[in-house]
């Protein structure tokens, strides 16, 4: 039923501990027997003291020897043999001591020793003690019958029979005990295996928990830390200032919240690659933290090129301005090694606690409002939040919201401004200008809504709309009056970057069936600066369609002259800024330079913004043959365009 090898091994381990207790019990039993012998014999029977002492010492000796064997021997078998011999000897000693058989000592002793042997779980000990007991009693019955004056032979046989019965019971008990021990052994073994499995599971779970904690720590780090700079990120910022109680300031001090944006950072990535942009971001982080000590500031990276700075324990706004000046100064000093001839500005929006609000969300929102105003109007500068900025920002939001419905609400319309030949005053073409009359907001300037439309990419749908309207209208006018007027249409950088722009243009040209050379797409220098590679590729594809390209607002960019010889440009439009100040010798020299170069490169030049006869005369004298402006004609609303053209054609006949 059980594995004997395993159970025997278990018994050996068990006996190493159990034998000590059983042996101790044997010593106590024999010692008690020795004491009892001495007391009973000496006090009650008045036997000789020396004889009693010797007998008692012999019993004590029989108990001490097994104990010593246990202490100095590692062998379980040796201990059992020694104990068996000593118990047998003690029993025989008691049996033969002065041949005393009439008392209970001999009669009861065999059962005591059988009980002790049973505790040792040893069949050998049970057999040995049984045989010793039986043989001792047989010896008395057979060899010494003359002393059996009080016990008959039948009693002896009965005693021996009882001893055999006791021995049989002891052996059976021994067998049951061993069987139970084996059963317990396997139960304990199973429990140990289960405990081992539980421990292994606990170890595995502990390892998994440690791994999970490490993963949580990593996720937490990723969630709350910027991987590029090591700065805390936007998530950490929002958690840090989740309640107004986290904005700590001393009495009579303020806390400044500054949103910082690096201007033209996208251009740096486009021209030199993201690895250069990443290096620049890390450099700018180091530049900013050099200005402060740890008790003064908190710096976060909350976007690609956007940082958020918290200045603490500030006395007044002038001190904030001083810190901003230090940041910009340090920023300017450290740009040279990284920018490769690209100059990046740093725009900042500032809100103040508690002046501008008590809740962090409000202060963050207001610093962002100030930043957006800087980006739109004063790029590269800083601006403190004010209520006027909030009103401007709320108008922007209203415009942006209304933009999504302007086409469906039929709120857009086109104005056509003629381009004149200054030599004879004739019209040589038109520029299509998009206008917006909102049902809710009224008339909205293109200077407002075009920028917002580019931000939310509504310019893609609006740009397609005006191309269809303008090309269809000019084609109708040309057919009506047998003319070949070109139509100029402004195109934004967002449109040029769109994958669907070229397809839209092709579809319109095909559907209207207009000659492609009568369509002139106007782009600004900012289109070239912001998306040079994409723009050059797209312009080449546009030219392949036969469409012409005009460079609008020429002279306001950084590298205008470099574009003229390398880009497929047909027309140059001089920005009205130069025309307004053409009386100034410097502006006049710039215009003359542009005209001379354009003539050499065989480019058509149109002067924009002619508002006075003096400007018209001056620009004509300098060699510019084409112009547009309020002096000759304001933009004509589409509903009045047919009437205007009829009047013009009639007057020119």
Biggest sheet record: 8 strands, mixed, barrel
Low-pLDDT sequence parts: 1-7, 100-105
Tally of helical segments: 23
Fraction of residues in β-strands: 5-15%
Q: Categorize the overall geometry.
A: rod-shaped
Spatial strand sequence of the major β-sheet = 6-7-9-10-11-12-13-14
Chain-averaged pLDDT: 80
- Number of distinct beta strands: 15
Describe the structure concisely:
The protein is of the alpha/beta class and 653 residues long. The chain has 23 helices and 15 strands. Strand 6 (412-421) and strand 7 (427-438) form a beta hairpin.
Q: Could you list some keywords that capture this structure?
A:
653 residues; five-stranded mixed β-sheet; 23 helices; 61% helix; rod-shaped; disordered N terminus
Report on the structure:
Helices cover 61% and strands 14% of the residues. With 653 residues, the chain is α/β, with parallel strands linked by helices. The strands form two sheets. Strands 6-7-9-10-11-12-13-14 form an eight-stranded mixed beta barrel, surrounded by four helices. β11 (548-554), α19 (560-564) and β12 form a beta-alpha-beta unit.
Record the SSE blueprint:
Blueprint lengths: L3 H41 L4 H24 L3 H21 L7 H16 L3 H21 L9 H72 L9 H7 L13 E9 L2 H8 L1 H16 L7 E5 L4 E9 L2 H17 L12 E8 L6 H18 L4 E3 L2 H20 L5 E10 L5 E12 L3 E3 L1 H10 L3 H23 L5 E4 L2 H5 L3 H12 L6 E6 H6 L1 H13 L3 E7 L5 H5 L6 E4 L1 H5 L4 H16 L3 E5 L4 H9 L4 E3 L7 E2 H15 L1
Parallel strand pairs: 4-5, 7-9, 9-10, 10-11, 11-12, 12-13, 13-14
Antiparallel strand pairs: 1-3, 1-4, 2-3, 6-7, 6-14, 6-15, 7-8
Helix pairs in contact: 1-2, 1-3, 1-6, 2-3, 3-4, 3-5, 4-5, 4-6, 5-6, 8-9, 11-12, 12-13, 14-16
């Amino acid at each position: 039923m059980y594995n004997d090898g395993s159970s025997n091994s278990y018994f050996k381990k068990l006996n190493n501990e159990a034998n000590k207790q059983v042996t101790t019990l044997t010593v106590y039993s024999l010692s008690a027997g020795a004491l009892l012998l001495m007391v009973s014999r000496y006090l009650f029977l008045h036997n000789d003291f020396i004889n009693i002492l010797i007998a008692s010492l012999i019993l004590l000796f029989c108990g001490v020897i097994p104990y010593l064997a246990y202490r100095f021997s590692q062998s379980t078998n040796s201990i059992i043999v020694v104990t068996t011999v000593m118990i047998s000897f003690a029993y025989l000693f008691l049996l033969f001591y002065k041949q005393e058989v009439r008392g209970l000592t001999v009669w009861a002793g065999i059962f005591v020793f059988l009980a002790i042997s049973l505790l040792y779980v040893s069949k050998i000990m049970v057999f040995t003690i049984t045989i010793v007991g039986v043989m001792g009693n047989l010896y008395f019955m057979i060899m010494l019958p003359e002393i059996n004056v009080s016990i008959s032979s039948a009693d002896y046989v009965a005693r021996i029979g009882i001893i055999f019965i006791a021995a049989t019971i002891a052996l059976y008990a021994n067998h049951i005990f061993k069987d139970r021990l084996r059963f317990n052994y396997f139960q304990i073994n199973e429990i140990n295996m289960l405990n081992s499995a539980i421990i292994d599971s606990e170890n595995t779970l502990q390892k998994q928990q440690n791994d999970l904690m490490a993963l949580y720590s990593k996720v937490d780090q990723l969630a709350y830390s910027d991987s590029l700079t090591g700065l805390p990120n936007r998530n950490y910022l929002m958690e840090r200032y989740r309640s107004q109680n986290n904005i700590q300031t001393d009495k009579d001090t303020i806390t400044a919240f500054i949103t910082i944006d690096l201007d033209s950072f996208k251009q740096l990535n486009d021209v030199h690659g993201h690895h250069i942009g990443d290096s620049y971001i890390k450099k700018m982080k180091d530049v900013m933290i050099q200005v402060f000590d740890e008790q003064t500031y908190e710096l976060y990276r909350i976007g690609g090129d956007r940082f958020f700075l918290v200045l603490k324990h500030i006395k007044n706004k002038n001190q904030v301005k001083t810190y901003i000046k230090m940041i910009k100064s340090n920023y300017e000093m450290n740009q040279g090694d990284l920018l490769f001839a690209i100059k990046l500005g740093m725009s900042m929006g500032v809100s103040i606690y508690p002046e501008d609000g008590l809740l962090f969300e409000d202060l963050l929102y207001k610093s962002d409002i100030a930043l957006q105003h800087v980006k739109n109007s004063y790029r590269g500068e800083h601006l403190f939040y004010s209520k006027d900025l909030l009103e401007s920002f709320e108008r922007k939001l209203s415009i942006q919201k209304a933009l999504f419905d302007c086409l469906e609400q039929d709120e857009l319309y086109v104005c056509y401004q003629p381009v004149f030949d200054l030599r004879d005053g004739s019209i040589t073409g038109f520029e299509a200008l998009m206008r917006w009359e909102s049902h809710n907001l009224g008339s909205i300037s293109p200077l407002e809504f075009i920028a917002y439309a580019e931000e939310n990419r509504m310019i893609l749908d609006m740009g397609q709309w005006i191309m269809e309207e303008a090309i269809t209208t000019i084609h109708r006018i040309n057919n009506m009056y047998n003319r070949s007027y070109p139509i100029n249409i402004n195109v934004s950088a967002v449109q040029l970057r769109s994958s669907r722009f070229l397809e839209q243009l092709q579809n319109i040209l095909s559907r209207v069936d207009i000659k492609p050379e009568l369509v002139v797409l106007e782009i600004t220098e900012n289109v070239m600066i912001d998306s040079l590679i994409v723009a050059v590729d797209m312009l080449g594809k546009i030219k392949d369609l036969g469409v012409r390209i005009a460079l609008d607002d020429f002279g306001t960019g950084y590298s205008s002259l470099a574009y003229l010889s390398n880009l497929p440009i047909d027309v140059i439009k001089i920005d009205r800024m130069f025309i307004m100040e053409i009386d100034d010798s410097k502006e006049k020299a710039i215009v003359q330079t542009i005209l001379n170069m354009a003539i050499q490169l065989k480019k058509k030049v149109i002067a924009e913004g002619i508002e006075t006869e003096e400007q018209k005369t001056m620009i004509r004298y300098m060699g510019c043959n084409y112009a547009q402006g309020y002096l000759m004609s304001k933009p004509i609303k589409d509903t009045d365009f047919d009437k205007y053209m009829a009047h013009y054609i009639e007057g020119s006949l």
